[in-house]
Specification:
Elements lengths: L18 H11 L5 H12 L1 H6 L2 H8 L3 H10 L5 H14 L4 H10 L7 H22 L3 H13 L3 E5 L4 H14 L3 E3 L7 H5 L7 E5 L6 H12 L4 E5 L12 E4 L4 E2 L2 E2 L2 H21 L1
Parallel strand pairs: 1-2, 1-3, 3-4, 4-5
Antiparallel strand pairs: 6-7
Helix pairs in contact: 2-5, 9-13, 10-13
């Protein structure tokens, strides 16, 4: 009796949406990968946020390989290319932040329900804002804020980049700069037109990039592009480990408090107002 063999199907155990499952499978298979691909695997496992937020060129440089090696690594794991693999890492980063329904449930558990809901919520958000502002006053940011206002006051144009919950910050700055006589351009379509809008910046300009965890990849990419081109970048972000901190002339790190996982914006807006008014005063005195 002749035994028939079933044609082997391509491995698809890496083409999955579950990041933890991907990591477990990669750790198991990594020793069998070629040396350069194993080098990428080690870097990816140790630096998942960098894979999610950096460009392919930046990842390749930091991993010590060629950009084409990233493509070969992704294809060896049954992805069409590095961009598709990167989406898995970005999904992981987004999942680390609770969605708004989970946040509402947290507030219910903490007592923000019933007849006193308005009072409980207002007190909670006011206290988070108060804590954020107290942290800001204690932080040693004055020197950097002073340098940032110098850069803005001396710039031909201020290019403002921010998205999602940070878009209101750059929108306010665009409004304030306009009222105070400082030429500013708001990048208002960070997805498709963002690179074209930001491309107007030159070394005589300043880019103000605003983002916090889970960080908008497009904001990080635009800041990195400007920094590589020698354009001064001022990053308004949530810490020295932010990917924006790697692509800026100045990093203004703001530690906002939160209430029920809803992050305060009080300190961020306080710095934005300080930058606008301070830069306008310096520009006026230098005129």
């Amino acid at each position: 009796m002749t035994q028939t063999t079933q044609q082997e199907t391509p491995r698809k155990d890496f083409a999955r949406k579950d990041f933890d499952g991907f990591v477990a499978a990669l750790r198991k298979r990594a020793p069998d990968l070629p040396r350069r691909l194993r080098q990428v695997a080690d870097y990816a496992l140790d630096n998942p946020d960098e894979i999610a937020l950096s460009t392919a060129a930046e990842v390749a440089r930091k991993a010590g390989v060629q950009a084409s090696t990233l493509v070969r690594f992704a294809q060896a794991l049954d992805y069409s290319g590095f961009s598709e693999l990167q989406q898995l890492f970005r999904s992981r980063l987004r999942q680390q932040v609770p969605d708004h329904r989970e946040r509402i449930e947290t507030l219910r558990v903490e007592g923000a329900a019933g007849p006193d809901m308005a009072r409980v919520l207002l007190d909670g958000f006011v206290e988070a804002s108060r804590e954020s502002l107290s942290r800001l006053q204690d932080a040693a940011l004055l020197r950097d804020i002073d340098l940032a206002t110098d850069l803005i006051a001396g710039a031909r144009t201020v290019v403002l980049v921010g998205a999602r919950r940070m878009f209101p910050v750059v929108a306010y700055l665009a409004y304030a700069f306009g009222k105070l006589g400082i030429r500013a351009v708001l990048v208002d379509d960070i997805g498709s037109l963002g690179p074209e809008q930001a491309a107007i910046a030159t070394a005589d300009d300043v880019v103000v990039a605003v983002s916090c965890a889970p960080y908008t990849p497009a904001t990080v990419a635009l800041a990195a592009r400007a920094d590589a081109a020698g354009i001064p970048v001022i990053a308004l972000t949530d810490g020295a480990l932010s990917p924006l901190a790697q692509h800026c002339r100045l990093c203004l790190a703001v530690r906002e408090a939160d209430y029920g996982a809803f992050r305060s914006m009080a300190a961020t807006f306080a710095i934005a107002m300080t930058l606008a008014v301070g830069a306008a005063e310096k520009a006026r005195s230098h005129a």
